[in-house]
Amino acid sequence: KRIISTGETVLGNKIVYPVGEAKITDFEFTVPVGAPVAPHTHSFPVLLIIQQGEVTLDYEDGKSRVYRPGDAFIEDVGVVHTATNTGDVPIKALVVAIGVEGQKIMTPVK
Predict the structure, then answer these.
(1) What is the pLDDT of residue 99?
(2) pTM, whole model, 2 decimals?
(3) CA nearest 67: which of 90, 47, 45, 85?
(4) pLDDT value of position 52
(5) pLDDT at position 17, please?
(6) Residue 110: its pLDDT value, please?
(7) In DSSP terms, which residues pair with 23 in a beta bridge?
(8) In contact, 88 and 32? CB cutoff 8 Å
(9) Which ranges of the chain have pLDDT less than 50?
(10) Are 59 and 11 in contact (CB under 8 A)?
């Protein structure tokens, strides 16, 4: 079963790969009920697949999107966003960072 096949990010931008030695990292990300994820950006494309819960992402342009189990999307490079668990169970998401050796997956923004 194919989960996602796209050349665009969740905001409709073309996916751009960084220059450098490739490093792909995969992990499960969990967010408790009601908990926020601080404002941040990504240096390279990041695929998220929501396995459990409901997450609301708020973007720097003021738009929000809600994702639920089975939703998959590619986050934009360099776009400030926050996430909040707006459901009634912890969020569990599979994260695949399509990155470059030596670069951070997530950079906090104040």
Answers:
(1) 93
(2) 0.91
(3) 85
(4) 98
(5) 87
(6) 85
(7) 99
(8) no
(9) none
(10) yes
Sheet holding 22-31, edge to edge: 22-31, 91-100, 46-52, 72-75
Counting every residue written for the chain, the total comes to 110
- Among 51, 101, 108, 49, smallest CA distance to 75 is for 49
Closest CA to 68 of 89, 97, 47: 89
Which residue is it, tokens 């050349």? 7
Q: What's the number of CA atoms in the CB half-sphere (13 Å) around residue 63?
A: 6
DSSP string, 7-51: SB-TTSPBP-PPSSSEEEEEEEEEE-TT-EEEEEE-SS-EEEEEE
What the block records as the tokens of 3 is 């989960």
In angstroms, the CA 15 to CA 11 distance is 10
pLDDT given for residue 34 in this prediction: 92
